[in-house]
Write a structure and sequence with these properties.
The structure holds 2 protein chains of 2 kinds.
Chain A (H helix, E strand, L loop, with lengths): L5 H7 L3 H5 L4 E2 L10 H14 L9 H20 L7 E4 L2 H11 L10 E5 L8 H10 L2 E5 L9 H7 L4 E7 L11 H10 L3 E5 L3 H4 L4 H4 L3 E5 L10 E5 L1 H6 L10 E4 L4 E3 L13 H17 L2 H19 L4 E4 L9 E6 L4 H9 L3 E2 L1 E3 L4 H7 L4 E5 L6 H17 L4
Parallel strand pairs in A: 1-13, 3-4, 3-5, 5-6, 6-7
Antiparallel strand pairs in A: 2-8, 7-8, 9-10, 11-12, 12-15, 14-15
Chain B lengths: L8 H8 L12 E7 L4 E10 L2 E10 L2 H14 L4 H4 L4 H8 L5 H18 L5
Antiparallel strand pairs in B: 1-2, 2-3
Helix pairs in contact in B: 1-2, 2-5, 4-5
The chains are: A alpha/beta, B alpha+beta.
Amino acid sequence: MKTNSSAAYRIKKDFPIFKNNKNLIYLDSASTSQRPKIVIDAVTYFQEHENANVNRGIYTLSEKATDNFNKARETIAKFINASPGEIIITKNTTESINLLAYTIKSLIKKGKNEIVLTEMEHHSNLVPWQEFARKNKLKLKFIEVKDDFTLDYHQAKKIIGHKTALVALTHASNVLGTVNDIKKIISYAKKHSALTVIDAAQSITHLPINVKKIDCDFLAFSSHKIFGPTGVGILYGKYSLLKKLTPFQYGGGMIKKVTKTHATWTNPPEKFEAGTINAAEVIGLAKAIEWLKKANNNEIKLYQKNLLNYTLNELKKIKGVKLFHPSRGPAIGVISFTIDGIHPHDVASVIDNYGIALRAGHHCAMPLMEKLKTPGTIRISLSLYNTKEDINKLIIAINKTKEVFKIK
Amino acid sequence: MNESLIYKERILELYKDPLNFGSLKNKTNAADEENTLCGDKIKMELKVEKGIIKDIKFSGVGCAISIASASLLTEKVKGKNVAKVKKINDKYIAKMMNINLSTSRIKCATLPLFVLKKAIDSRLK
């Protein structure tokens, strides 16, 4: 491998979990990322020095908390080139998408009774739309995944039409690593005035996201996948659309005036933020974004690219390994594979004995597993703290697994 | 390395060459279930006469633990009374497997038992 691992080792030092688990080789960042100390400290600092409810008090401490919270929202907005008023705080990507499913009916024009998704969606960008379609008598259509693990854009163009109310798709697959040409799909949707929802849960960490360039209507991601704390998710929406949406949850924080029988709503984003928010964790997310901007320099970006190629090449050398990852086109460091004759769950169990953490199963994408004709896969996901040495150990473990199961 | 502790020879043999695998011609009861967490799918077909399991076969796709468990379980319940079989619990399965099962793998081992009990309650018309 051309680049050396020193940059990745420097980054690894920022993560306390590796100090505390010396043998841990963490290859499951697509499930959740690890937390740099600076993020853990930011959450603790808030709770030890600045904790007060946000937007509620007039006293100094509350104003400080509110200020820092607002600054955090600005940081998050800037990261995806949105304005702070377009950033809604939820608890995770799943809640962000559910929020839309609960409120988007108000935006759907008459005569539009179809929703277009893809075969590679995570359950969180599939099931909410199934229920939405069921409740509102809409039809679901799916953009197909081709044998090369990319979307069938020809077929997509055919099924997105004047009846399409909404197109929801993932930016990068959490199973295959495929990066979808969301700009292309969004252009098809725009031709027919369909709304667009982008699931950026995986891509937010690995690809630059500029919502103005992408020009999607809505975009969702989670804090815990981008080195931030759990409990925080983001929903971006074009301000003009957020103004039209009905609220999601009702209560304190999202109202303007309340009488015994009636209430009026405040403006976005607070209109969708009922109750007390995880202020400390939102500040933690902003810290994670700041950390990532600094850490993810060109050296590391190149290393990550090389590491992905190295991983793919090493896996291809093993007899019986079947890869589920595009051989061409843009992809993130997420690779699914199977080993002939051994169930994915068994592979993961043996590999676990080597201190290697990876995922086996359907990865919350059962329809995709059906399309791929496998009950499950083993998944490796690479992040900034992974090294060539991690992969070398993985390859040894895979070969050992074959030995245990007496597979040649 | 204790990677083979969970995969003792016995388990691997039963995975490669399961006992009672296939379908039953004169079945009177059948049921299937999936462990959606990892993709194990087990189906059980029984021939029950006068409360006794006269014959039993299992089929499906699964990890070594679930297949081995299904092999051992189907072998154990042949000729047994359904009322007694219904009393079999997870502890029994753990003992039967005789290996170190982590919390995530216990579900694999107990899936065949779950399907068996479901099959006992599902008499075909």
